[in-house]
Amino acid sequence: MLEELLQWDRNAFIYLNGLGVEKYDNFWTTVTEISVWTPLFLLIIYLLYSTFSVREATSRLITLLLLVVFITFLTQWVKLGVSRLRPNNDAMVNTTIRILKSPSDFSFFSGHASSSFAITVLTYLFLRKHRKWMVLFFIWPVLFSLSRIFVGVHYPTDIIVGALVGVASGLLFYALYTRFIKPGSVLSHP
Length: 190
Prior knowledge:
Blueprint: H1 2-18, H2 25-31, H3 38-51, H4 54-82, H5 111-127, H6 139-150, H7 156-181
Helix pairs in contact: 2-6, 3-4, 4-5, 4-7, 5-6, 5-7
């Protein structure tokens, strides 16, 4: 069963990676860079502080930062534990795919998918009642995650599991925020 799943994953990756077109390579290599999304992160901070009091915006921002630390640690811990080679480093597929990036660490699960979905879910939950268009923020994790296939560094299951872990982490941190951190919650009282 596991070998069949891994074979499907390799085949799906080879197919999806092969859909890449050279004239869009620059787009995908740009989209996959975290620094390109800095304006989005600044927008999130702006939206928090323009929507909530300084105290509440700061507590929400700290929750987001704690989520980033958590998801980064969890992703790296799982990658080291699973030790799955990235497609660009896997001799079974790297001669048949398009490789635009060549990281050397492990593949499972995608940190790009887990972190972007976690941040987006938590941001969405924080702001959805105040900004009806917040659903548009989900364009970021979708593009960010898909870029990892087109640049040749993640299998589809890396992306899917990373996205699911990210969504679950965003929901978890929202629950923790509303229960323990939010002004007026159990722990915020002296």
